[in-house]
User: Fold this.
Amino acid sequence: MNYIMALLLAFLCAPAWAHKPSDSYLTLRVDGSRIEGQWDIALRDLDTAIGLDGDGDGRLTWDELRTRHAAIAAYALARLQLAAAGAACTLTAGPQLVDDHTDGAYTVLPLHGTCPASPTQLTIVYRLFADTDAQHRGLLRLDAGGSVRTAILGGEQPAQVLALAEPSGARQFLAYLREGVRHIWIGYDHILFLVSLLLPAVLVRRGGQWQGVTDFRAAGVEVLKTVSAFTLAHSLTLTLAALQLVTLPSRWVESAIAASVVVAALNNLWPVVQGRRWVAAFLFGLVHGFGFASVLADLGLPSGALALSLLGFNLGVEAGQLAIVAVLLPLVFVLRGTAAYRRALLPAGSLAIALVAMVWLGERVFDIKLPGV
Assistant:
């Protein structure tokens, strides 16, 4: 029993100090033998890898970045190789700019290259930050002849061969399905919101006290309703945002997501919404959908397989959520009847989640970044 409780506590608390795995955003356009594009790389990752903060005051200035532009370009280009028909393509970088993504500032590295001949397929070897962050991935958007395909670069297989012909709808579907699963697993705010809803799912409130439910099937059905309501809601707003029918400022969206985690966690300490958690999950899911949409905005959606890609991403998010439920629900069901769960783990876990989310909320509302969080 103590082992199970320790495992559950570790699962709940891990996101409090873990950082979101880093991503870079690589866009390439192939026109005959010429390649153009840009590479957005997080400044925080570059600072860790090669050092950008010259005076060590914890703040990056434009002058500090400008003096390191050559080092940034050299570091990045040494970790990206393109080849066609077995011959290397040349690749150079242009003047850099800075852009903001939802998770911070990025350098924008314009790319120019040529291949020995017009390629029918492109080999990409991607090793950016492989020596400093094994979880780093590059999100590729490749445009060739008006056909767009996407890929996730890096990891244990740094080399990928991508055909430049129109990819099949099935391949696009599977690619976005995997990205949906990955995004929910690295989206700590979405995970903590889900955990906040799951913690009391094996309990009922009677006489002002929590009591364990007796039927696992009933608890599972209630959780499934909650997760499905969340999925339905975020699928709706994700689709609206991906089709550019509704857009909201990312700072507002990210702040609202953090606030939703705070409210869900505090509701476990001072229950206001009890019987119909699926309603709260649906309402907050509308906000989370706009957060998921920012991922698709960075990845880009292929015009030829728009519906399949959207469906794949949504199903991937749902599959990722259900995997979390499949691990967590049996654990909390086993512990539900113990006083330690009702009087310690539930309130302590909910309070920890609320505090972490409050930090996120402060960062996002006031546009600050606290060290070590």
Observations:
- The two ends are 31 Å apart (CA to CA).
